[in-house]
Amino acid sequence: MPGTGGSSHLGIDILGGMGKKDDRTLAIRQKANEARMREKKAEARRRALIQGGIILGVLVVVAAIVIAVVLGNRAAREVAIPENTATISVGETSDIPFQIAGTAVRVGSEEAPVTISLYEDFSCPHCKDYEAAVGQTLQELIAEGDVAVEYHPINVVSEYGIRAGSAAACVAAHEPESWTTAHASLFAVHDASTDAWNNEQFATFLNGQGIGGDELTECVESGRYANWIKQNTLEARDAGIASTPTLLINGERQEALLSPEQLRAAVGEIVS
């Protein structure tokens, strides 16, 4: 019996030791599991932060693109309107009133009994021919005091008309004394070789004509008044002007273009 009792005690000690070992093993495994869970959560947070950063970066880029497009569209829609009121010399006559009014460059006295309105496109071959035919006569009529001419630059043919029209508007706004020269020259120089001129080439051409200056050159190179030409074109179409050149005398549209002699006769009939 004592032997049996001794064996029973030993067995209890062994089982008790095994129970403690199992508890330690379980605790170690639990801590390891907890560590793995913490690592998984940390990794998940890292992935979320990385993904969030990527998404935020994409959103920032998209927002920047949207803002750029919106600002670009707004700039494209904005219309810079040239402004100037001055007096210039036409031929041998000085102190001729000069004004940019609405969609036109007006040259001549406010009291002139005859107003000739000319809708023209610098890229229009017929306009080029008409300027060559009557340009000098119009200047003479202006200088004589009986006529004011309103030049309406619009565009119906090629992009040359927009860029040249903008360049002419820059001259009107910054160097009106040179406007009649620029107006005639921009028609005369137009042909197949110059039709694709960019704004910088227009600035170079005008400088070669002795027409320039920092503000004027910057204006021409930027194409500042291109949208003004486009707006003028839309307004002209709304007013029923479907082609260029179109000639009006005191608001009455002429069925045909008048020659220099016919222009003088028409003016003489009104002022007599």
Structural summary, described in words:
By secondary structure, the chain is an alpha+beta fold. The protein is built from eight helices and seven strands; from the N terminus they run αββββαβαααααββα. It has helices at 2-77, 125-144, 159-174, 179-188, 199-208, 214-222, 226-238, 260-271; strands at residues 85-90, 93-101, 104-107, 114-120, 147-153, 246-249, 252-253. A seven-stranded mixed β-sheet has the order 1-2-3-5-4-6-7, sandwiched between helices. It is rod-shaped, with a radius of gyration of 41 Å.
Q: In summary, what is this structure?
A:
This protein has 272 residues and is of the alpha+beta class. The protein has 8 helices and 7 strands, in the order αββββαβαααααββα.
Rounded average pLDDT: 87
Number of helices: 8
Which overall shape is indicated by the principal axes computed on the Cα atoms?
rod-shaped
- The SSE string, one letter per element, is HEEEEHEHHHHHEEH
Sheet with the most strands: spatial strand order: 1-2-3-5-4-6-7
Number of domains: 2
Can you tell me the residue ranges where pLDDT is under 50 for at least 5 consecutive residues?
1-12, 68-76
The CATH C-level name of the largest domain is Alpha Beta
The portion of residues assigned to helices is 55-70%
Rg, Cα atoms, Å:
41 Å
By helix and strand content, what is the structural category? alpha+beta
CATH architectural name of the largest domain:
3-Layer(aba) Sandwich
For the biggest sheet, the summary is: 7 strands, mixed
| Beginning-to-end CA distance, first to last residue | 158 Å
What proportion strand? 5-15%
The CATH topology of the largest domain comes to Glutaredoxin
Record field, number of beta strands: 7
CATH homologous superfamily label of the largest domain: Glutaredoxin
